[in-house]
Amino acid sequence: MQQNNMKSKKIIIIGGAKAGGVASCIDHNRKHYNDYEYEVMGILNDFETGSINGYPILGKSRDCARYFDEDNIYFSYAIHVIGKNKLGDELFQELNIPEEKLATVIHKSAIILDGAILDPGVTVLALSYISSAHLKTGVYVSPQSTICHGSEVGPLSYISMGSIIGSVTKIGRSVSVGMGAKIIEKSVVGDFAVVAAGAVVNGYVPDCSIYGGIPAKFMRNIDI
Ligand SMILES: CC(C)(COP(=O)(O)OP(=O)(O)OC[C@H]1O[C@@H](n2cnc3c(N)ncnc32)[C@H](O)[C@@H]1OP(=O)(O)O)[C@@H](O)C(=O)NCCC(=O)NCCS
Fold first, then answer.
1. Exposure winner among 6, 8, 35, 150, fewest CB in 10 A?
2. Which atom of ligand 1 is nearest to 181's Cα?
3. Is it the case that residue 224 has pLDDT exceeding 80?
């Protein structure tokens, strides 16, 4: 085990409230799949000190630059607050983490088809299925989600557990898709929009709006 730890890439999770899925995914891959590619080094968090679920808090999010020149240290950006997507997006841009330092973390039980394109910093959690879709930088796919072929999911978008993103859909930048939501094929969801839990979207969701229900209808705009 010691030898495996020495080979592992060290990950710093930025955000990581409630320890999040990234840390659990890495630990689960190590423990149950003998996959030692990554090891959680700690968390950068702007609100807490000490530790979160046993992972040390190493500093604030803006401290990440201290580690940019260190070999073998990588980052996972885990700040996704539904309805406050723009703030998380702005912080990500301010941090300016080099692309090659963004870790792509995939649970071993996820299925990623050959035609899929995963940009740096993508997370795909347990039992998810990614067909030949394009997931852009920092996309986070929660457990048991499906992303069908020909779809594009914009940077930093957050797909909650049990969601289904149909074929040839276009999900914008920093979108939140609530748990169990379904986006019917060829739909378009605009930047910073929120799809409510359980919604069925068939068509178009404008930027910065919240749509919910079946079929999904406008609920309100997001104040940004
Ligand atoms: C859509 C959402 C963002 C709205 O949050 P909000 O603005 O705080 O809304 P509120 O809870 O104040 O509810 C406002 C109204 O919307 C309704 N509503 C809330 N969520 C809804 C949903 N998912 N579908 C349909 N209606 C919903 C409420 O019943 C309420 O209706 P009322 O005004 O007739 O009483 C939120 O409910 C949601 O679905 N978030 C996603 C949660 C999620 O999937 N988390 C993933 C964690 S892994």
1. 6
2. 44
3. no
